[in-house]
Amino acid sequence: MKKLINDPTYVVEEMLDGYVKAHPNYIKVLPENDRALVTARTTREGKVGVLIGGGSGHEPGFLGYVGDGMADGVAVGNIFASPPPAPILEVTKAIDKGAGVVYLYGNYAGDVMNFGMAAELAEMEGINVEMVLGNDDVASAPKEEKHRRRGIAGELFVFKTAGAAADLGYNLEDVARIARKANENTRSMGVGLTPCSLPQTGKPSFELGEDEMEIGLGHHGEPGIRKAKLQKADIVADELVAAILEDMPLNEGEEVAVLVNGLGSTPRMELYIMFRKAEQILREKGIKIYRSYVGDYITSLEMGGCSITIIKLDGELKTMLDYPADCPMFVQK
Amino acid sequence: MKKLINDPTYVVEEMLDGYVKAHPNYIKVLPENDRALVTARTTREGKVGVLIGGGSGHEPGFLGYVGDGMADGVAVGNIFASPPPAPILEVTKAIDKGAGVVYLYGNYAGDVMNFGMAAELAEMEGINVEMVLGNDDVASAPKEEKHRRRGIAGELFVFKTAGAAADLGYNLEDVARIARKANENTRSMGVGLTPCSLPQTGKPSFELGEDEMEIGLGHHGEPGIRKAKLQKADIVADELVAAILEDMPLNEGEEVAVLVNGLGSTPRMELYIMFRKAEQILREKGIKIYRSYVGDYITSLEMGGCSITIIKLDGELKTMLDYPADCPMFVQK
Amino acid sequence: MKITAAEFIEYFKSVAEMIEREKDYLCELDRKLGDGDHGVTMSIGWQAVNQKLNNELADEKDCGKISSTIGMTFLNAVGSSVGPLYATGFLRGGKAVAQKSELTDQDLVEFWIAFINGVKDRGQAKAGDKTMIDTLEPALIALQDNAEASQNFTNAFNEAVIEAERGMKSTIELVSKIGRSSRLGDRSIGVQDPGATSAYFILSAFLKFVKEL
Amino acid sequence: MKITAAEFIEYFKSVAEMIEREKDYLCELDRKLGDGDHGVTMSIGWQAVNQKLNNELADEKDCGKISSTIGMTFLNAVGSSVGPLYATGFLRGGKAVAQKSELTDQDLVEFWIAFINGVKDRGQAKAGDKTMIDTLEPALIALQDNAEASQNFTNAFNEAVIEAERGMKSTIELVSKIGRSSRLGDRSIGVQDPGATSAYFILSAFLKFVKEL
Ligand SMILES: Nc1ncnc2c1ncn2[C@@H]1O[C@H](COP(=O)(O)OP(=O)(O)O)[C@@H](O)[C@H]1O
Ligand SMILES: Nc1ncnc2c1ncn2[C@@H]1O[C@H](COP(=O)(O)OP(=O)(O)O)[C@@H](O)[C@H]1O
Ligand SMILES: [Mg+2]
Ligand SMILES: [Mg+2]
Ligand SMILES: [Mg+2]
Ligand SMILES: [Mg+2]
Fold it and tell me: What does pTM read for this prediction?
């Protein structure tokens, strides 16, 4: 596949270089580690630090979400690979303002090990760390094994709510509690239409027939639960929403936020057509959409397809979702 | 090409339906015409109305830019086709607050005719209309025939500056003057890597070899100035920036804003790699980047590739660029 | 010859059919020169027109009203470049045959002359610019020249369509000077202009229609 | 047998070479089961290691230091799942041969046992889960069993590699229980685990290396 890059070996370095040069009053690289980026703004003493991270290739996830009301720092891995403990630790030290740091990341073997190691090292340096793993993807394990599910686009809601809580002055325990509550009330499911390819291999991440889709696809191109003939958007949206609602039943009158997330090469037009159906289903059930997000929030390079995420809201989560944010790739008034 | 749609005939209708349902406190459809959308917020009496519009398929352009500090309304055409006069006229009537309306659109034969007809009709109804055509694409005609150039991603700067001026209470003449100044100081050039396809035909909008790129491609897939072997990002960025600077020479110490705009399926990673080189070239020439925008701002469905836009700034344009904006697809603090 | 309003309507339906058949071909031409949507645009427009013909216009007796309604319907359905061009053509054509429930040879000549002049006025393109004008302008001249000479509309229109075809084909070798494709420069040579092609379909469908009456 | 620090370094360089050759194959396996990057990740990691071996470690005499530096270099270059796993392996292996400039048969046995136990501790996977442990665990057992019996490291390691290969191949028929591919369920059957495969390359490269000494 064609890419506008230089040497595949240095894509992450060059992206980071461009990124910090494009947004110098938002973000900077720590001198200690070139994969450790923190907000360029001064954060309050006593504020809980919010650390996010994961593999590259998911932009705006994760580096795009460092800024006011969101994360204070990000550890950046290679494409689709967890960052090692070193940049996580450096970010931790830089953003700890005496109140501890919460790590927000997706439930992947690599991330669990690397963030876990970093947390141990941080604790050894006297920094309190709480870890909250996103595992919103209903397609990735049955309900009884929810702890094995991977985190996909729903992590946005975890970042958003925890970021707001930290900015509002909540303590570490409460920021972590809110992040966990957000995660526990969030479900996602995706569909893949076309693969992406790693710059280093140029090979498609999966194979699908010209008329096929992959239901439940992971956002690194991991196979989903089944291949099927590509259906009309309404039918696909129906299947995704049904799987979510089966996993997390919602009652009439309950309020949610909906995220239709593009995986990279799916036009907004198609995302809004998907949203349209999701809204219709929820409306018919008497469920109220409190806020909507439609766009590319956590991508997989140039993968085609999307995911639908629903988060069930209470008053506290609504406050956190409404809170303003100002990041290079995400601004909310 | 695979698309998450229902019936190709109704993609625009369904997108609009999803769009207004996703963002009801931002935007609404006028009862008079289902392709006429205006801000859901009340605008001040005496404020100049800012009307944008053009074909669909460029999302976030153009409907994504209706909101505080940007446009008050948008007329939505079929995919890659100018809207007819009727929705333009309805939007004009709805957003005129007694101070007239400025039409901002790209320099395409269809838009010129349709917006022109609408303006005539509006004037007949006693509404003052000013028209400002975007024609930033240096690849689309030589310097001597600048009036024939088409408008591409640089239109964002025209919307942004005119939207701010209108919000700041400038009169019609001044809003139009600022929009024209923005356009006159803006140059863009694009490169295409992979085609998009219209939902109705499913056929690729152009053909390119597996190792080819199209330099100077238009953002509807119109052929550019030449096909060439795909080069490294640095070389491509160099060519685009060189063409811009040849057309609009910049002196050491001058200030600009830079926009690296993805055409639809180009990952942010690649856009930032392109930005990185553009920044380097400008820095070496002593030109200061005052603001940067990197992302999908005006797309061509799922086309692969990007464009680089540079706008030369003075104090007034800086004020307008810095002014906050709050739209469904574009928020700036 | 005389054409009734009902027949006039039938003709326009035959255009809608023809465009539907040629949609892909028109897109194919536009992909090479422009943004690839010409067939889609024409189809959307003529399908909307067809809809109107089968409903609101089904029993319309005023040929002028039929033509002007077609113009506005087409315009509102497509916008685009061709919307204003054809809308202006049909509005002017409609004015030329206002309130007539039957069209004589003379009316038909006036209809088509007004139609073509309307398109020309709106687009300001000249023959040789590689647009639909390269089809329409020769047809206009032939029609004007032959209408009086031959005293027979069908013969005159036959000449017009022969000239239109020649004009359409001439666009293959032309460098585009106007519209989207004009930015192509020499790369526009070798492809027939899509708008010139669909304009030819509209004229030739009328010839076929009158011959079969 | 005795292996000098310089020879130890040569071995690791040979792993880097081997991984570079097998990179595409490893990605191919991971595309079917996971996210398709295993070859790339191993390559990035081992290229970084190779760099270290050629520079900072070029004259290093402490085999323990060599191994632990490799572990940290690999980890910092890749993160990922394999980063912590192999880093822990090499750190533990390094501890087992700390400050030794030459490695005896006994040292080598201890090195590999500590290495494999380190990986196991970090990942908590069990044989049968369809991971690199399916390669490493049988090798560990064979090495422990044969090291004393045969009194000859090469023979014992030969047995270990035979068992490792058997273990690697057994992953073809396994349903994945851990890591990215575990969400595939039965769809994971039929493909050899990429991590099990690269782990086999690391062991077999060592066998080749000691045989050629
Ligand atoms: N000013 C003009 N006068 C006459 N015809 C024109 C003019 N501009 C464009 N055209 C015609 O329009 C055709 C393109 O139509 P279409 O593809 O539907 O519109 P768009 O260019 O807006 O996509 C061209 O092939 C050309 O024949
Ligand atoms: N807990 C674990 N213990 C041992 N090996 C594991 C574990 N988790 C994953 N692996 C191994 O890691 C391999 C995948 O490595 P790699 O593709 O580099 O990482 P990632 O899954 O992060 O993309 C799997 O094939 C498996 O052998
Ligand atoms: Mg990975
Ligand atoms: Mg068009
Ligand atoms: Mg066209
Ligand atoms: Mg992998």
Answer: 0.96
